[in-house]
Each structure stands twice: as C-alpha cells, then as structure tokens.
Amino acid sequence: MVSRSLTALPVYNEVEHVMPVLDEVVRYSREVLVVDDGSADGTSDLLAGRSDIHRIVHPRNLGYGAALRTAFDFAVAGDYDVLVTIDCDGQHEPQRIPQFIEASRDADIVSGSRYLERFPGDSRPPEARRRINRIVTEEINRLLALNLTDAFCGFKAYRVSALAQFDIRDPGYAMPLELWVQAARLGLRIVELPVPLIYLDESRSFGGSLDDAETRLAVYRDVLRRSLAASEALLSEGKTGEGTP
C-alpha cells in the first residue's frame, strides 16, 4: 500500500504558469515540491509566498536534469514511497496524478505517453520535436529491448526505492536517456499511461545550441551512447540490478 507520495515540479522562469499550475497540483497531491532552477523572472518571489509547498532554490540555472535530480534526492531522503514529476508549463493535467500513483503499485516507473493514444483536442507538436522524439524512442527501444512510445514525456511516477538505484549525471534535457538506460540495466518494471498532447506555446525554446534540431539530436545520441557505455562497463563488473519488490 502506498503510504506517502510527493509531486515535484522543476521550474525555470514560469511566472505566467506557476501559480495556476500549483493551485491545481495541490488539489491532487498532499505534498508538493517545487525545484526552482535559478528563475530570474519573478517566479521565485511568487513561490516564496506559498506555505503549502516544499521549495528548493538552485542559486543559478543548472538545467532540467539537475532539477529532477534534486527532486529525486529529496524524495529518497524524505523516505517517500512514490515520486510524481510534472512539468510547470501547463502541458500536463494535474488531475491525472492519482492515476499515476495508482499505476505505480505495479511498476517502478510509470511514464506518460503523448503518443500511446489520441485524445480529443490533442495539439499538433512542432514537427522537429515529434521527429526527434520518434527517432530517439525507436533507438532506445532497439538498443534496450524496451517498448516505449514517448521517451521524453516529463509526467512520470517513480517508486522511490527504484530512484535510489539511479546515478543520473546529465544536467540537461538529455537526462531521460540516462534514466532509460539505467532502468533497463536494473530490470525495472516500466509502464506507460496515455496523456493528452498539449502544446500551449510552440515558440518555447530549449536554449542555446539545442534550439537547432540537428544539434539537439546529436546531443541526445551522444548522451545515449555514453550512457550505454557506462552501463556495459557496470554489467561487465557484474552489477546488473533487479526490479524492486
């Protein structure tokens, strides 16, 4: 039986979205953590005024992966049973949080998928993002013998006992690739839940060189290659891991 769950949101410069999103999240999660990844647009001031959340502030922008790693560490240290992660840009529906928690009873990772099934009113994603997601998801499935349909959805639930086995290093948007490689090596139980495909602002950028689609794909492939090499090294040492009970 799940006794304690936590919902965590990585946040960076989300002054327009953070309050309405949090108002919804707290309706469906008794404990909420916001990792403010060095926001400089007034987001931090808004968060400081809330007494109904846990808050961790990075002194500077460290990256999406780094913010999630902070949330992982908080969940492990706090001895939670389940950690739900949800983005703060309005692309995920907080009312689905209980479904993710329930699904985690029989899985180590419950991953949202925007492509598992269609919902009325689904957005059309920017073509470059859809293409890269499809390419990377196919490569992950082929290399790791997984059956994913969406490698990059940030809406997830994790058994915290499984999180404690991860060694996430990538601080940026390629962090999910490390996660999938390590989850496969550890033999974790993975299920996907369908979620609507919502894009509120197609102009949102990754920042820096990652705004170029081909550069972004090359970075993802490089992180995947290095993660696989690290995993193979551990396997050669006999550190395979098993799914959590």
Structure description:
By secondary structure, the protein is an alpha/beta fold. The chain has a single domain, classed as Alpha-Beta Complex (Spore Coat Polysaccharide Biosynthesis Protein SpsA, Chain A). It has eight helices and seven strands, in the order βαβαβαβαβαβααβα. Strands 3-2-1-4-6-5-7 form a seven-stranded mixed sheet, with helices on both faces. Helix 5 (127-144) runs parallel beside helix 8.
Give the topology, please.
Elements: E1 5-11, H1 18-28, E2 32-36, H2 43-48, E3 54-57, H3 64-77, E4 82-85, H4 97-103, E5 109-113, H5 127-144, E6 156-159, H6 160-163, H7 175-186, E7 190-194, H8 213-236
Parallel strand pairs: 1-2, 1-4, 2-3, 5-7
Antiparallel strand pairs: 4-6, 5-6
How would you describe this structure in keywords?
7-stranded mixed sheet, 245 residues, Spore Coat Polysaccharide Biosynthesis Protein SpsA, Chain A, alpha/beta
Q: List the domain count as a whole number.
A: 1
Specify Rg, calculated over alpha carbons. Answer: 17 Å
How far is the first residue's CA from the last residue's CA? 12 Å
User: Widest sheet: strand order?
Assistant: 3-2-1-4-6-5-7
Number of strands: 7
> Into which percentage range does the β-strand content fall?
5-15%
Which structural class fits the helix and strand makeup?
alpha/beta
**What is the average of the pLDDT values?**
91
- Oligomeric organization of the protein chains: single chain
Number of helices: 8
Helix/strand order, N-terminal first:
EHEHEHEHEHEHHEH
The CATH class, by name, is Alpha Beta
Main pleated-sheet profile: 7 strands, mixed
